[in-house]
Design a protein that fits this description.
The complex is a heterodimer of chains A (102) and B (656).
Chain A lengths: L8 E5 L5 E5 H4 L3 H7 L6 H5 L1 E3 L5 H16 L16 H11 L2
Parallel strand pairs in A: 1-3
Antiparallel strand pairs in A: 1-2
Helix pairs in contact in A: 4-5
Chain B lengths: L1 H10 L6 H8 L4 H22 L8 H27 L4 H28 L1 H4 L7 H6 L2 H13 L6 E3 L6 E3 L15 H17 L1 H18 L9 H11 L12 H13 L18 E4 L7 H10 L5 E4 L7 H10 L5 E5 L6 H11 L5 E7 L5 H10 L5 E7 L4 H7 L7 E6 L5 H11 L5 E5 L11 H9 L5 E5 L6 H8 L9 E3 L23 H11 L5 E3 L8 H7 L11 E3 L8 H10 L5 E4 L15 E4 L16 H20 L1
Parallel strand pairs in B: 3-4, 4-5, 5-6, 6-7, 7-8, 8-9, 9-10, 10-11, 11-12, 12-13, 13-14, 14-15
Antiparallel strand pairs in B: 1-2
The chains are: A alpha+beta (102), B alpha/beta (656).
Protein name (chain B): DNA repair protein-like protein Rad7
Protein name (chain A): POZ domain-containing protein
Organism (chain A): Lindgomyces ingoldianus
C-alpha cells in the first residue's frame, strides 16, 4: 500500500480563503474528503494534501472541522451528546454535510 | 393601609421555637439573649456614630431622629431588663416587646426618610447602606452587621427594592436579592422564576429526557453507537426552529424528504412551513402529516408546483372537492397519487379525477375513506386508467365485492394491496388472483375472511399457481387457511425467493383450545414455516411471523441453529410466538449476519440475552433490565466476519 507520503495533517480551504489544518484521520471521516485523499485514485488533492472546498465558506467549514473532531472523539462512545449548532448556520451546514457525506 | 400594617406588626410574634421552650425549661430566657444582643448592637451603633467623622455634619433632623431612637431603645432596654429579671415571659409582655421593636424600626424608617432628605452620608449609617463605613470599622462591627442583616427582614417594614429601587412593604415572604438586600413582590417573583428555570435546566431532567429518548430510539430500532451524522444533527436542529426558517434554498430532494418527515413527526407542518417544501422545479410533493393544512394550502401545492408528478398527502382532512377540481385542472403530469383520509372529496370528483388523468395514472393509494369512494369509483378507476401499475386500497369502508370484480380487470397491475372492511366471498378473491396474479410483484391481502363457506386453502393454492414474480408478500390475520395450505404455497413454487414476507396473525382462534387442532394445524405452523424458509430463506430481508403461535420450538431451533445462514435477513418479528426463547434469539444473531432488528414482544422465554454490537432487540418483556439490549459486545463471529470482509475488500480493487 502507498503509505509512504501520508502526512499527518491535511489542509481544507474554504471558498473565502480560510485554511483549516485538520488531522488526516479526522478529515477522512467525511466520505467526500476520504475519496479525494485516497492514494489509489491519485487525485491532485492527495499529492498536495490540500482540498479546496469552493462551495463552503469559512464559518461553515470551521463548524465542519469541529464536527470532524467531535466525531472522531466520540466514534465508539454511546449516548453521545449532540454537538451544538447555531440555528442560523443549520441550512448551510446541512448542504455542506450532504456534499461532504458526513 | 397604616392600620393594617399596624395590626400586622402587632399580630406577628417573635420566633417561638422548640429551642426557646427547651431553654425556658432550663431557666434560660431566649428573650434575655435577644435583649442582650440588641443592647450590644445599640452600643455598637452608638460607637459607630461617635467614631464616624461625618456624624457631626449630620443635619438637625437626623439628630432629632437619633434622639427619638435612643429613647425608644432605652424603653426597650428597660422592658427587656424587667422581663429578664422576672425570668418568666407572659404573652402580653412579649407583645409589648414586639411593639417596642416595631417602634424602633419605624423610628429608623423615619430616620431613613429624613436622612435621605438631609444628606446621603447620613443614610450610610443605615445598616444596609453602611458598607463604606464598615470597612473602616472594627471586626466586631462587621460581625454585628452580619447579625443585623439577618435580623433585618422584619415584616411590616418599608424597604427599597434592591433591583427596581421601588419602595415596598416587607412581608415574611419577601425574597432576598442577589446582593443580600430585599426584593419587592414582582422582582421577587421574577427572581424565583429564574432560579427555578435554572434548576430545571440542570441535570435530573436531562437524564430523564435522555432515558426517554433512548427508549424511543430503541423502539425505532436505532442503534446508538457513535455520534449522529452532521446531517442528522442539522435536520433535527432545523425542525426545532421550524418557525424561523424563511427558505430552504437548493436542498437536494432526499434531504427535503427527510426534513418533511421530521417536520411531520414534530407536528410542525402547517400553513407556513408547508410553503418551504414547495418549489416550482420539483416533481414530487410528499407531506406525511397534512392534518394542520387548510384547504387553501392544498391549492398552493398545485399553483406552485404545476409539474408535479407524484403527490402524497397523509391525513389530508381538509382536502375538499375544490382542491380536487383544482388538481384536475392544474396538475396535468400527475401520475402517482396517495391520499390518506381525504373524506371531503365526493364520489363524483373521484370519478372525475380518474377520467381526467386516464391513461396517465400509474399509481393510486387511498386509505381511510368512509364517507365517499364506493364501488363505482373503483369501477371508473379500472375503466379509465388501464395503465395502473400500483393500487392500494385500505380501510375504504364502502368497497365490496364489485370492487374486487373490477380490480380483476386491471391487467397491468404490478403491486396490489387490499384491506377491505366488508367480507369478500373467497371465490371472488381467487378469481382476482387468477386474473391479475401473474404480473404481480407485490401482493398484500390483509384480513380477508369468509364466514359463508367452509374454510379451505383455495386462495393460497391460487397464489401458488398464478403468482410467479412476487418479491413482497403479505398475508395476515387469517384463521381459515391451514398449515397444509402454506406448505403447498411454499413448496415447489415457481416464484423466485421472496424479499419481504409478512404472515403475521395466521393462527387458530379458539380460547378453549389455545394450541389449535392437533391433527390439522390452522395457520402458519411447523410445516408451513419450514417450507417458507426453505423457499425464501436465501433472499429474505424482512420476515414477520408475529402471533403465529403454532410454530413449535423444535422448528425454530432447527431453522435458526446458528449454522444455517440467512445472508440477507435484516429484520425479524417474532412477537407473541410463546416458544421463542433465549437460545433461538442467540442463534438468530449467529445465523443472520445482516440482522439489525429482532422484535420479541410477548416472548417471555427470552431472558439474559447478550446482544451483539449493532443489533437492537425490541420487546423482550423479561429482559428489560437484565440485559443490555443495545448490542455493545463484539462477538467472536462478528470479528471473523469483519476480517473476511476486509480481505475481500482488499482483493476487489486489485482485480479491477
Amino acid at each position: 500500500m502507498a503509505t509512504i507520503n501520508l502526512t499527518e495533517f491535511v489542509t481544507l480551504e474554504s471558498s473565502d480563503g480560510f485554511e483549516f489544518k485538520v488531522l488526516r484521520s479526522a478529515a477522512c471521516l467525511a466520505g467526500t474528503i476520504k475519496k479525494a485523499l485516497d492514494p489509489s485514485y491519485g487525485f491532485r488533492e492527495e499529492s498536495e494534501g490540500r482540498i479546496k472546498l469552493a462551495t463552503i465558506n469559512g464559518v461553515t467549514l470551521e463548524k465542519v472541522c469541529e464536527y470532524l473532531y467531535y466525531h472522531q472523539k466520540h466514534a465508539e462512545a454511546k449516548d453521545v451528546p449532540d454537538m451544538e449548532i447555531p440555528p442560523e448556520l443549520c441550512l448551510e451546514l446541512l448542504i455542506a454535510a450532504d456534499y461532504l457525506d458526513i | 393601609m397604616s392600620g393594617r400594617r399596624g395590626r400586622n406588626s402587632a399580630g406577628i410574634r417573635g420566633p417561638h421555637s422548640a429551642l426557646t421552650d427547651y431553654l425556658a425549661t432550663h431557666n434560660i430566657s431566649a428573650q434575655q439573649i435577644r435583649d442582650s444582643y440588641r443592647q450590644r448592637l445599640q452600643q455598637a451603633e452608638a460607637q459607630a456614630e461617635q467614631e464616624s467623622p461625618e456624624a457631626g455634619e449630620n443635619g438637625e433632623l437626623v439628630q432629632d431622629d437619633d434622639e427619638a431612637e435612643a429613647q425608644a431603645q432605652a424603653q426597650a432596654q428597660t422592658e427587656a431588663e424587667s422581663s429578664a429579671m422576672a425570668a418568666e415571659r407572659s404573652r402580653k409582655r412579649k407583645r409589648n416587646q414586639e411593639e417596642a421593636i416595631a417602634k424602633i424600626k419605624k423610628g429608623k424608617e423615619a430616620k431613613k426618610k429624613a436622612s435621605k432628605k438631609a444628606s446621603k452620608k447620613a443614610s450610610k449609617k443605615k445598616p444596609r447602606g453602611s458598607d463604606d463605613d464598615d470597612n473602616n470599622d472594627s471586626d466586631y462591627d462587621d460581625d454585628f452587621l452580619n447579625m443585623y442583616k439577618k435580623a433585618k427582614p422584619l415584616p411590616g417594614q418599608l424597604e427599597n427594592c434592591e433591583l427596581c429601587e421601588k419602595r415596598f412593604t416587607v412581608t415574611p415572604y419577601s425574597k432576598a436579592g442577589p446582593d443580600g438586600g430585599l426584593l419587592c413582590a414582582p422582582c421577587g417573583k421574577a427572581v424565583t422564576k429564574e432560579t427555578k428555570a435554572t434548576e430545571k435546566a440542570a441535570k435530573p431532567i436531562a437524564v430523564r429526557k435522555a432515558r426517554r429518548k433512548i427508549e424511543s430510539n430503541r423502539l425505532d430500532g436505532i442503534t446508538m453507537r457513535g455520534p449522529k451524522t452532521l446531517q442528522q444533527i442539522c435536520i433535527e436542529k432545523l425542525a426545532n426552529h421550524s418557525e424561523d426558517i424563511e427558505e430552504f434554498g437548493e436542498l437536494p430532494e432526499a434531504i427535503m424528504n427527510r426534513l418533511s418527515e421530521i417536520f411531520s413527526k414534530k407536528r410542525a407542518m402547517n400553513s407556513t412551513t408547508v410553503k418551504l417544501f414547495l418549489r416550482p422545479d420539483m416533481d414530487t410533493v410528499v407531506i406525511h402529516e397534512a392534518a394542520y393544512l387548510e384547504t387553501e394550502d392544498f391549492d398552493q401545492i398545485f399553483a406552485v408546483v404545476p409539474e408535479i408528478k407524484r403527490l402524497s398527502l397523509k391525513n389530508c382532512c381538509q382536502f375538499k372537492d375544490g382542491n380536487m377540481e383544482y388538481l384536475i385542472e392544474k396538475a396535468k403530469q400527475l401520475n402517482a397519487i396517495q391520499l390518506l383520509g381525504a373524506n371531503l372529496v365526493s364520489n363524483d370528483n373521484w370519478i372525475n379525477l380518474f377520467s381526467a388523468r386516464g391513461k396517465g395514472l400509474k399509481s393510486l393509494k387511498l386509505e381511510w375513506l368512509d364517507a365517499a369512494f364506493n364501488d363505482e369509483a373503483v369501477q371508473a378507476l379500472i375503466e379509465f386508467c388501464p395503465n395502473l401499475e400500483r393500487l392500494k386500497l385500505e380501510r375504504c369502508k364502502q368497497l365490496g365485492v364489485d370492487s374486487i370484480q373490477a380490480i380483476a380487470k386491471a391487467d397491468n397491475l404490478q403491486h396490489l394491496t387490499l384491506r377491505f372492511c366488508k367480507e369478500i366471498p373467497r371465490k371472488e378473491l381467487v378469481d382476482l388472483i387468477v386474473s391479475v396474479g401473474h404480473n404481480l410483484r407485490t401482493l398484500c391481502l390483509e384480513n380477508f375472511l369468509d364466514n359463508t363457506v367452509d374454510p379451505d386453502d383455495d386462495l393460497l393454492i391460487a397464489i401458488h399457481d398464478t403468482c410467479t414474480h412476487l418479491s413482497k408478500f403479505r398475508f395476515t390475520e387469517n384463521h381459515e387457511c391451514t398449515d397444509d395450505g402454506y406448505l403447498t404455497l411454499f413448496t415447489n413454487w415457481s416464484n423466485p425467493p421472496l424479499r419481504y414476507i409478512d404472515v403475521n396473525s395466521n393462527r387458530d382462534i379458539d380460547n378453549a383450545n389455545p394450541d389449535g387442532p392437533e391433527d390439522i394445524p390452522i395457520g402458519l405452523a411447523d410445516a408451513g414455516f419450514k417450507a417458507l424458509i426453505s423457499h425464501s430463506g436465501s433472499r429474505l430481508e424482512y420476515l414477520s411471523i408475529a402471533s403465529c403461535r403454532h410454530i413449535s420450538h423444535e422448528t425454530f431451533a432447527s431453522i435458526f441453529d446458528g449454522e444455517k445462514q440467512y445472508p440477507h435477513l435484516r429484520e425479524i418479528n417474532m412477537s407473541f410466538c410463546p416458544v421463542v426463547d433465549t437460545q433461538i434469539v442467540a442463534a438468530i444473531f449467529r445465523s443472520c449476519p445482516k440482522i439489525r432488528t429482532v422484535v420479541t414482544f410477548g416472548c417471555f422465554e427470552v431472558q439474559d440475552v447478550i446482544v451483539p454490537r449493532g443489533i437492537v432487540l425490541i420487546g423482550a418483556p423479561r429482559a428489560q433490565d437484565a440485559i443490555e439490549q443495545f448490542g455493545d459486545v463484539v462477538m467472536e463471529f462478528q470479528t471473523m466476519r469483519e476480517e473476511m470482509q476486509r480481505v475481500s475488500e482488499r482483493v476487489v480493487p486489485v482485480m479491477a
